[in-house]
Specification:
alpha+beta, Immunoglobulin-like, 2 domains, four-stranded antiparallel sheet, 5 helices, 30% helix, 17% strand, globular, transmembrane helix, disulfide bond, ENL_dom, membrane
Length: 194
């Protein structure tokens, strides 16, 4: 393989990696049904078949004035308590950005409908970082008796994504694989026609 071919391959792989790592999505909660009491696909099933990443955005569509979306802690999620939401969304086309990894808890602002199942848990995947070199001396770990930090509960994370309302969970990996395939076909093309 010549010098020009190696550069072409390296630049293509670098470009594919950069585009793949910076992609995020907007997801329509409940699919075409939106944020309703009995969607055709349960919110639990919808959330478990998708992979949520930091900076994805959840879009809750519902009739303004007739419902709302509350971001709550785990206890309020389980009891359907609408009294102390972390965040209240009520404009009918509510967007929520997943800004961290971990679980996010959403319930309707109508307690009776929450008790009937209009609620959602979204778990955002952890951000993967490249492993770092070990430090010469490990830092001391905190003692088990250390108190937990006090502070406000961070709302569940949702990642901003392009304006498409539905995206398959493997979009980024499919894109990356298509880049790898393009590189392979490019190399084959160079060998056949060189």
């Amino acid at each position: 393989m010549g010098y020009d071919q190696r550069n072409w391959v390296a630049y293509t792989v670098l470009l594919c990696s950069l585009v793949n790592s910076s992609y995020s999505y907007q997801l329509l909660v409940g699919g075409r049904d939106g944020w309703v009491l009995n969607p055709s696909e349960s919110y639990h099933h919808w959330a478990t078949r998708l992979r949520f990443q930091v900076n994805d955005t959840l879009l809750f569509k519902y009739k303004r004035g007739s419902d709302s979306v509350l971001v709550v802690n785990k206890e309020d999620y389980e009891s359907c308590s609408v009294a102390n939401p972390v965040v209240k969304l009520e404009d009918g086309d509510s967007e929520f950005r997943l800004d961290r990894s971990g679980p996010f808890y959403f319930i309707t602002g109508n307690k009776a409908r929450c008790d009937q199942g209009q609620k959602l848990i979204v778990v955002v995947l952890a951000i993967r970082t490249s492993p770092s070199l070990p430090s010469p001396s490990p830092s001391p770990s905190p003692s088990p008796e250390a108190p937990a930090p006090d502070g406000p509960l961070t709302p569940p994370h949702v990642k901003p994504r392009p304006r498409s309302l539905a995206a398959p969970p493997c979009t980024a990996s499919v894109f990356f694989m298509s880049c790898v395939l393009s590189v392979g076909l490019g190399l084959l093309n160079f060998r056949v026609f060189s």
